[in-house]
Amino acid sequence: MTAIIPMRNAVSSRQAGGSFWAAKSRLLGVPRLVSPLVLLIAWQVFSATGFLPTRILASPVAILETAWQLTRSGELLLGLAVSLLRVLAGFSVALVLGIVLALLSGLSRLGETIIDPLLQMFKAMPFLGLLPLFILWFGIGEAPKIGLVAVGAIFPIYLTLHAGIRGVDLKLIEAGRTLGLDQWGLIRHIILLGALPSLLVGIRYGLSVAWLSLVVGEQINAGSGLGYIITNARDFLQTDVIVVCLLVYAAMGLATDSLVRFFEARYLRWRPRLVTP
């Protein structure tokens, strides 16, 4: 009996230790890193053995070396700065227009009758096909690129905010009227706050569409930016440079999305959650 108790204690200790390391691994996200690491290793092995030629796709090591060289020369940072300014300019236009149009359409039946059919009609069009028209109308400067970003990002903002406005609880509006709020007070303190979660979803989606639009816009008649670097690399079959720029696009999209999620977590703490962080 005395020998069984220490054995049970040892088994319990091993189980506790195992569960501790398993919980710590899950916390660090280790299992989610396994498949990407396997893919990178296989990619490098295929490149090193010649099964994956460089003219088709450069190896991960060559891509890292190219990223370091572009960063040291300043070419990558300059292109990133130019592309970021284009996204900020185009998305700012989309944000203002999207909010104004959603308010006019969401708060007024007449506004919905006039505005919503036009937005739905343009939404169904492939907006990337507007680039040739933008070049004819605005030339080959910054305007067509910023315009393409704005057109691509405005639809998610409008649609989500419009749905959020229409989904505001009518009891809250009645309560606001009872407390003496005027029309502007209702919009500011109840409708916009009630529709804010939907608006943030639209902003996240709109930012991803903005970066996607910029990838296309910068590859036509661009003299700077990440798209310009990609175009030059395509002419010289530099797949490593192309992959580096695409990874930068992805990183910027992830960074802007994380910024909106941080804002959402900070200012929407009052909202009940199904899953706690």
Structural description of this entry:
- By secondary structure, the protein is mostly helical.
- 80% of the residues lie in helices and 0% in strands.
- The protein is built from eleven helices and no strands.
- The protein has helices spanning 4-28, 30-48, 60-73, 75-107, 109-123, 131-138, 143-166, 170-178, 183-217, 226-235, 239-267.
- Helix 4 packs antiparallel against helix 5 (109-123), helix 6 packs across helix 7 (143-166) and helix 10 runs antiparallel to helix 11 (239-267).
- It is elongated, with a radius of gyration of 26 Å.
- The two termini are 46 Å apart.
- Mean pLDDT is 83; it is low at 1-5.
Radius of gyration: 26 Å
- Percent helix, as a range, is over 70%
First-last Cα distance = 46 Å
Number of helices: 11
CA-based shape: elongated
Keywords for this entry:
277 residues; 80% helix; elongated; mainly alpha
Chart the SSEs and their pairings:
Layout: H1 4-28, H2 30-48, H3 60-73, H4 75-107, H5 109-123, H6 131-138, H7 143-166, H8 170-178, H9 183-217, H10 226-235, H11 239-267
Helix pairs in contact: 3-11, 4-5, 4-7, 4-9, 4-10, 6-7, 7-9, 8-9, 9-11, 10-11
Summary, kept brief:
The chain is mostly helical and 277 residues long. The protein has 11 helices and no strands.
